[in-house]
Design brief:
The protein is an alpha+beta fold. 37% of the residues lie in helices and 29% in strands. The chain has helices at residues 45-48, 51-65, 97-104, 111-129, 134-140, and strands spanning 7-8, 12-20, 24-31, 36-43, 75-81, 84-90. The model is unreliable at 131-142 (pLDDT under 50).
Length: 142
Amino acid sequence: MSQPVEVLSDRYELHRKLARGGMADVWLARDRVLDRPVAVKIMFAEFATDQLFVERFRREAKSAGNLNHPNIVGVYDWGEQGGTYYIVMEYINGQSVAEVLRAEGPLHRDAPQRLRPTWQRPWGSLMRRGSFTETSSRATSC
């Protein structure tokens, strides 16, 4: 017998955990309203009672939601249900960096130079908008 699907805000059906970070888990979910897959980042319960963490999480959602770049995942929504805080993001199907490294081994020494354009453009966009600081990256990374 299967377990019932957890649903946030009567809209986002959580299906399976994709990743675990320092302050949140990321889940594959389905948006019931738009009938599309999404990624939902759910803050760990131990941080949900700390208003400083909650505010950082909200700022992350707001800042990322205002960005539009092909190399940055889109943010669709953010919310809270029963003390659980979450951010709803674009879901991109594919391998994680960890999966690629496990499958292919360490990157070749020239990989950072080849990959530079893929991270340099969005990084510059973040810096120009003032949306990124070293403190915010440590506090809000998954």
